[in-house]
Design goal:
The protein contains 18 helices and 14 strands. The chain is an alpha/beta fold. The chain folds into three domains: 148 residues, P-loop containing nucleotide triphosphate hydrolases (Rossmann fold, 3-Layer(aba) Sandwich), CATH 3.40.50.300; 146 residues, no CATH class; 82 residues, no CATH class.
């Protein structure tokens, strides 16, 4: 690209940047990230607020340089143009702080980042493809970066957006929190969805990801099959799946193709696979997986919603929060096939987490409790929690203590 073209884009973007809203502060340690010399890498699904988070980091610096590569004028930019870009930056500031948005659009970007890192630059980059970022970082930037995975708004961030303080739990505040939780459960947490309440916006986000980030990037030929698989998985979120059964149901030529398509959806952060915990790694990989969606709101734009889905929405919401908290997650099945929704290991304990919308039905109550108690007999050093829509209790049975808590309290870190 010509230097004049790059300079025009840099100046246009900087002018646009100064007009953007700063948004609500995300739940990130800004001071730590701004002060470390390591590269700060922000990854996450499109429209989750990565650019706004960059803007919030920019407020920590008096001077900086910035470029967003998700600009149609940058289509011909390649790795050899980075040196020209740095000369343009140097024309306007001597600062060694740089911000690059959606940098994975440029092949070979990681070599350039490595070079300027070695020259003493403080670097922030964002990207929307988990695999591209991870593989490139691991190859060329090992030990030189810290990674932030950004999800749509957490429930705490939702409350912050609506100026609700969860530290003061008066009756009126609790009522407001529960009302907002009901919305969050069904509409999700995409920032612009929360701001404008535009359901069609989520459809556009989904289609942009499917076509721009996946179908075009990976040159997917059978577009109809790929879209059908995506819709099927969104419809059946939280359910157990096998690649072979999906191949048969959707008439896809091979289970390998199914696995590849799902990996594309995972790379874009649209969907996630959850493995069953097993002491044998081989069994973990070959067992059925469970599928979860990035956001309940976007799921509702892709698949029809039924009243019976509320329990699945709650389970999906809990899964995403656990991912946000960076837990290494599994689901667990006992020897007699009783299932616990989530399992993770932390502080020398296995943590078992069961999710049930309600416990009014005695059969449901007994099933959920039995699964937890049975799992504690098979796993050493366990702690149990059962999350519901609005019930709170402590159940002690067969020497096992189970804390029952409304999901909204757990999301806010309120334990009782």
């Amino acid at each position: 690209m010509k230097r004049e073209s790059i300079e025009t884009i840099v100046l246009d973007q900087r002018e646009s940047l100064e007009k953007k809203e700063k948004g609500i502060p995300r739940d990130v340690d800004f001071d730590k990230q701004a002060s470390t010399q390591q590269i700060t890498v922000i990854s996450g699904i499109r429209r989750s607020g990565k650019s706004t988070l960059l803007l919030q980091f920019m407020q920590r610096f008096e001077e900086f340089s910035y470029l967003n590569f998700d600009d149609e004028r940058m289509l011909n930019f390649n790795v050899s143009d980075f040196q020209t870009l740095m000369l343009v930056f140097a024309k306007y500031t001597k600062s060694k702080v740089v911000f690059f948005d959606e940098i994975q659009n440029v092949d070979g970007w990681e070599r350039f980042i490595r070079r300027i890192f070695d020259e003493g630059y403080k670097i922030f980059v964002t990207g929307s493809n988990a695999k591209l970022l991870s593989s490139e970082l691991a190859t060329h930037l090992t030990g030189r970066y810290v990674k932030i995975e950004l999800f749509p708004f957490s429930f705490r961030e939702i409350l912050s957006f609506h100026h609700v303080n969860p530290a003061k739990l008066s009756s009126s505040t609790i009522s407001e929190i529960v009302t907002l939780f009901d919305d969050y459960l069904l509409k999700g947490g995409f920032p612009e969805m929360i701001k404008y309440n535009d359901n069609e916006y989520l459809t556009r986000v989904y289609e942009d990801i499917l076509y721009k980030d996946l179908i075009v990037r990976y040159k997917i030929k059978n577009i109809k099959q790929f879209k059908n698989l995506s819709q099927y998985l969104f419809t059946n979120f939280t359910n157990s799946i096998s690649y072979n059964s999906l191949k048969n149901v959707l008439n896809i030529k091979s289970s390998t193709t199914v696995q590849e398509y799902i990996s594309f959806l995972e790379e874009s952060y649209l969907l996630f696979e959850l493995y069953k915990y097993d002491f044998s790694l081989k069994k973990q990989f070959v067992s059925n997986k469970k599928i979860f969606a990035i956001d309940n709101g976007i799921r509702n734009r892709i698949a029809m919603m039924f009243s019976s889905d509320r329990g699945r929405f709650l389970e999906n919401l809990v899964f995403i929060e656990l991912k946000r908290r960076r837990k290494e997650l599994y689901f667990y099945k006992t020897a007699n096939h009783l299932e616990t929704d989530f399992l993770y290991y932390e502080n020398e304990h296995f943590h078992l987490l069961q999710v049930s919308y309600g416990l009014d039905d005695m059969r449901t109550r007994e099933r959920e409790i039995k699964a937890l108690i049975t799992a504690t007999r098979e796993l050493p050093q366990t702690k149990c929690m059962l999350l519901t829509y609005d019930e709170e209790d402590t159940i002690v049975k067969n020497g096992v203590e189970i804390n029952v808590l409304p999901a909204w309290k757990w999301l806010l870190g309120i334990n009782s």
